[in-house]
Amino acid sequence: MTTLSAELIRKTALDNGADLCGIASIERFKDCPKETHPLSLFPETKSIIVCANRILKGCYKGIQEGTDWSTYWVHGYGTGIYSSLGKAMGAIANLLEDNGHEAVASPGGHTLLDEAPPPRPPLAKGKLPPGVMLHMRVSAALAGLGEIGWSKVFLTPEFGPRQRFEIILTDAELEPSPIFKDHICDKCNICVKTCPGHALGGPRESVTYEGRTFEWGKVNYGKCKVTHWGINPKASPFVTKDLPGLNMDIDKVSFNWYEAYRLGFALAPRISYLNLISTGSAEHGQGGRPGSVCGAVGCIQACYKHLEAKGILKGGTKA
């Protein structure tokens, strides 16, 4: 048995491949809806551990050069980033269990929480429908890792918008990380201006915890997903080549997220390059899903370039 501490959890995460690790107390989630509340998944939760790994800048190079759209999908979403995150989270879970505590992984989500498909009915009386998940970006904010940017992409002082997250709930009572009080996002609107889906910068939304307000512009998730899947000709050269009659005008798109999600699966096999990415991603553990063709041009690439030019990011410093 080991004396557990927040510092030991953090050290275990970083020693096993995570770039960032923060901890939130369950009290910080008191205003979260039941559909995103840790207690709806694990009623004994006392602490929420959030780890992150950077998305390598090189993931975007193929899209920037117009020569390879698969690298971002495979290495920015797939095994390239989640293998190391999985190792870190496994080490934390083992440490917790070895010391008599539960470790419950939550997949987390963001767009699904805003525009999910109709829920299945509850499986037991008094229970929520299946599909409860924590909001990744809110959880990361409550764990002190950074702030939510105007694009609604999460920003850390180390990597700006370039990271993915994993979450573990535990009944171990750990000292929470301090809430991030500084500001990374300067509301420059470069994300809004450069998003090929015209999906960002909607009406202001916000949440407040411990005196810190995190705010962002509402995202149009239908336009975002159509662009992400590469069906928007402003973001993808492939749809015009293989489906010239589609005439997708992104400014007239009225799909919600779920409709756009299903449309991507329907059209990807009919667009040669998207089908190639889909087949390739299956080989890399992505399950044959359509790939991310937009390359996060506005919400990640342009944002990161802006923040890097300002000289405020710490880069690879472990934190």
Give your account of this protein's structure.
This protein has a domain at 6-181. The strands form 3 sheets. The protein has a 4-stranded antiparallel beta sheet, with helices on both faces. Helix content is 35%, strand content 13%. The two termini are 26 Å apart. The protein is built from 13 helices and 8 strands. By secondary structure, the protein is of the alpha+beta class. A hairpin with a 5-residue loop joins strand 4 (147-148) and strand 5 (154-155).
Strand content: 5-15%
Percentage of residues in helical conformation: 25-40%
How is the main sheet built? Answer: 4 strands, antiparallel
Distance between the termini: 26 Å
Element-by-element helix/strand order? HEHEHHHEHHEEEHEEHHHHH
Mean pLDDT: 88
Rg result: 20 Å
List keywords for this structure.
319 residues, two-stranded antiparallel ribbon, 13 helices, 13% strand
Task: Break the fold down into its secondary structure elements and pairings.
Layout (H helix, E strand, L loop, with lengths): L5 H10 L4 E6 L12 H4 L5 E8 L6 H5 L4 H7 L2 H20 L4 E4 L4 H4 L21 H7 L4 E2 L5 E2 L7 E8 L19 H5 L9 E6 L2 E6 L3 H8 L9 H5 L14 H11 L4 H12 L13 H14 L9
Antiparallel strand pairs: 1-2, 2-6, 3-6, 4-5, 7-8
Concise description?
The chain has 319 residues and is an alpha+beta fold. Helix content is 35%, strand content 13%.
